[in-house]
UniProtKB/TrEMBL annotation:
Location of the DUF5916 domain: 236-813
Keywords: Signal
Protein name: Carbohydrate binding family 9 domain-containing protein
Keyword Signal set for record: yes
């Protein structure tokens, strides 16, 4: 009741302030640009010699956004932008003067990878809603990048087809862009009113300038766009494009060579000017990057990033409320572990697929003129079976490990006042037959007052899990109140989940049954000092409780700071003091917990100037536990070297240890067995790239991860009801040995060629080795020798994707 009263009070205050205060943004005049219609499109070659550019007005008078605040651009680096449109696209020409053009950094990269280059970008918000916009970027080396923007969040997994070229002379560099309407979504009206921002990054000066002023101390960057007027009566072409693909691969493992050919199709269709349908038919994810698999000794599954483009492009609506973990689609079958248990006498497990097959997926998303965002997502996975063989008769039988499944998401997101939104989202998983189904509904709000000085955000989510003969309902909520203006800021937050909250059919949720409170205060500078370009420091406090029973689990206070010098040297630290904690998850048995001592965390990092040919990142972490021999240590060292504008390499080394930790061993009918465990890990990784141009590259990705977990002999214990551990005699045998030696090696060598807009060919060679055993007493060198005694899996594949625009081939279809 108390929290509900506080929530109502905060909401009421926000609307009072909404009426009583005048926005600072209203005092800052927005620039505007009137676009001109053209009838002869320019040639997109980066050379601004087309006659149309001479007749158009220019956007100029850029001002500094980093590191200073509003300083006019240098006379030696003036920037001019011109924009035009026709019924197919908008066209942009940018002139970027530089009195020292030989100092302009020009590192060659591939799409969506900027690295050490100057760049020019344009942000287009076709709804002028202060929140959602599309970013188009081109570097001084000619590489392009595009992203969906939501507030200050950038999503570079978003890719559309557009053109951009650059040129150089002794006065500076120039960019020419063509952005088809097919790359944008906008309301249908006679005259468009869009907001727009131009930005120039001058890397060797460490300065960034924008066309329209941005007040960094308040609000979001997307709320400071200028206005784009004059686009009238456009008749955009049909937004329909096809991405047919074909792939062939040869796989060799354990002297068994298998070849495979597959083909499929991705489709993008503009249902209207505002809404787009994306579909993938018979998808193939054979060339997705390796997951960074590690030795997982904890009570929770290891979470991985999404490597499949369809599930990362244009999904900003579907990720609202963190209810969508796309790796669930095509994940390990629900009954994967049941296959082994189903084996009878004289039977063996012949085949047990580790993943389900995705048959197809679609997503529809867009936003109306009134700011209502609508999203629909659907994916279907096939039935998965394990094969069990009879060693006597030679006959096989199958068991279903995952039935046919349907995944759905529906989202309604209403934005208003150019700074606030309310959202309703539902996720649903339905499996064929008598199997587990899941349904989750969330209501979210993100409210800023008119001056953007305070933010009120919250979520209320209800889960439903339907097991055969059982329906389980759960609830979770979040609420935060934050001061979001000025150098000094503060906030409070509250997170809650009952003991039955479960979103893991389509989401990812490790913990439930909590009732947590937090508070913070921070200070940040927005203009450089004589030493620092950026500086921020934050103090925080957390108090965590169990919902049922209502007891404290832990509390903490701490601080973290971040700083960047004028020479782009960054450093920071994190310090936390934590009380004794009750861990309800490590025992792996409902209602039981283990007590862990309080601890102190000291964490720090340094990062040198990436503009230099040689740069480095170093971070360290040390955890010391009170009244205990337990401690943790980790160090990361990552040097990088840019041999030339075409060739660069990054090496990463990570070493970590955890000693004297009382850890879970096994469950017995009447007790939980723990042991004193040491863990040591070493990771080596290399990322190297040679760019022949911004369209062709040779890439190397290598990772070797080794980890060993060793339980000390005669240091086993049994968990008591009060969370303490009592020493016991526990006999380790071959069958119950908890020790582990884990070693994995992955290597990818690929050649990529973007041979046409939206079209790409990738030739990939990869090999991998994996070893897991119980030899916890060996060191890295011996473990690596054992690793190379394992069978090497080798794979060679070629994938071709070709972009087809319906408007370019419709005459062929008509014929």
């Amino acid at each position: 009741m108390f929290l509900r009263t506080i929530f109502i009070l905060f909401v009421c205050l926000s609307f009072i302030k909404l009426q009583a205060q005048n926005s600072k943004q209203d005092k800052i005049s927005k620039k505007s640009y009137n676009a001109q219609r053209i009838f002869n499109a320019p040639k997109i070659d980066g050379i601004l010699d087309d006659s149309i550019w001479e007749e158009l007005p220019e956007a100029s008078n850029f001002v500094m956004v980093q590191p200073g605040d509003g300083t006019p651009i240098r006379e030696t680096h003036k920037t001019f932008v011109k924009l035009a449109y026709d019924d197919e696209a908008i066209y942009v020409a940018a002139t970027m003067l530089d009195n020292e053009p030989n100092r302009i950094l020009r590192q060659f990269t591939q799409r969506d990878n900027v690295e050490q280059s100057d760049f020019f970008l344009i942000d287009i918000n076709t709804y002028n809603d202060g929140e959602n916009q599309t970013r188009f970027l081109i570097t001084s080396a000619g590489a392009i990048a595009d992203a969906k923007m939501s507030g200050n969040n950038e999503d570079y997994s978003y890719n559309v087809v557009w053109e951009g070229e650059i040129s150089f002379n002794d006065k500076g560099w120039y960019a020419e862009l063509k952005i088809p309407y097919a790359a944008l979504r906008f309301p249908k009206k006679d005259e468009q009113l869009w907001s727009i921002q131009f930005l120039r990054n001058i890397l060797h000066l460490n300065e960034v300038y924008t066309w329209n002023y941005i007040d960094k101390s308040i609000g979001k960057d997307t709320q400071y766009n200028g206005l784009l007027k004059g686009i009238k009566n456009i008749d955009p072409p049909v937004r329909l494009s096809f991405y047919p693909y074909a792939s062939a691969e040869v796989d060799n493992f354990q002297n068994n060579t298998i070849s495979n050919f597959s083909a499929g199709l991705d489709i993008k269709y503009g249902i209207s000017d505002a809404f787009t349908l994306d579909a993938t038919l018979i998808p193939d994810f054979g060339q997705t990057a390796f997951d960074a698999v590690e030795l997982n000794l904890g009570p929770f599954e290891q979470a991985f990033g999404e490597n499949r483009a369809f599930f990362t492009e244009g999904t900003e609506l579907f990720t609202k409320g963190n209810l969508f973990y796309s790796r669930r689609i095509g994940d390990t079958p629900l009954g994967f572990n049941n296959a082994q248990a189903a084996i009878l006498e004289n039977e063996i497990l012949v085949e047990n697929p580790e993943n389900t097959d995705l048959l197809n997926a679609i997503k529809i998303s867009g936003r109306t003129e009134n700011g209502l965002g609508v999203g629909f997502f659907n994916a279907i996975t096939s039935e998965t079976e394990a094969i069990i063989g009879d060693t006597l008769t030679g006959l096989n039988r199958t068991i279903i490990t995952e039935p046919f499944a349907n995944y759905n998401i529906i989202v309604l997101d209403q934005q208003y006042n150019q700074n606030s939104s309310i959202t309703l989202i539902n996720t649903n998983v339905t499996r064929n037959g008598h199997a587990r189904d899941g349904n989750v509904t969330g209501f979210l709000f993100d409210i800023n007052n008119k001056t953007n000085s305070f933010n009120y955000a919250g979520e209320a989510k209800m889960s439903n899990v339907n097991n055969p003969g059982q329906n389980i309902t759960g609830f979770a909520s979040e609420f935060s109140f934050d001061r979001t203006k000025g150098n000094f800021r503060y906030g409070i937050d509250h997170d809650f989940a009952n003991e039955t909250y479960d979103i893991n059919d389509l989401g990812l949720n490790f913990r439930n049954n909590y009732n947590n409170f937090g508070t913070n205060i921070s200070y940040e500078i927005f203009e450089p000092t004589k030493i620092l370009n950026k500086f921020s420091i934050r103090l925080f406090g957390d108090h965590r409780r169990r919902y049922k029973p209502n007891i404290e689990t832990e509390s903490a206070i701490g601080t973290n700071f971040f700083a960047v010098t004028l020479s782009r040297f960054a450093f920071g630290s994190f310090i936390k003091l934590n009380t004794e904690s009750k861990d309800f998850f490590e025992p792996r048995r409902e209602g039981k917990f283990v007590n862990y001592p309080g601890y102190t965390v000291i964490d720090g990092f340094i990062s040198s100037d990436y503009r230099q040919k040689f740069a480095y990142d170093v971070s360290m972490n040390y955890v010391s536990f009170f009244d205990s021999d337990r401690e943790n240590f980790r160090i990361n060292v990552s040097p990088r070297f840019r041999f030339s504008d075409q060739f660069s390499m990054i090496y990463n080394f990570r070493y970590s240890t955890s000693t004297n930790r009382n850890s879970f061993v096994t469950l017995e009918p009447r007790r939980e067995i723990f042991g004193l465990r040491d863990v040591k890990s070493i990771e080596n990784a290399i990322q190297a790239s040679y760019n022949f141009s911004t369209k062709q590259a040779l890439n190397l990705s290598f990772r070797n991860f080794w980890s060993v977990a060793n339980f000390e002999d005669s240091k086993f214990s049994s968990l008591l009801d009060n969370g303490d551990l009592a020493p016991i005699e526990y006999q380790v045998t071959q069958n119950n040995n908890p020790n582990a030696n884990f070693n994995i090696w992955n290597l990818d060598l690929s050649y990529s060629w973007q041979f046409a807009p939206g079209s790409e060919a990738i030739l990939l060679y990869r090999n991998s080795i994996f070893n897991f055993d119980k030899q916890s007493d060996i060191e890295f060198t011996e473990s690596s020798q054992n690793l190379f005694n394992q069978d090497l899996r080798q794979n060679l594949s070629l994938r071709l994707v070709y972009f087809i625009d319906y408007n370019n081939v419709k005459n062929i279809f008509k014929g």
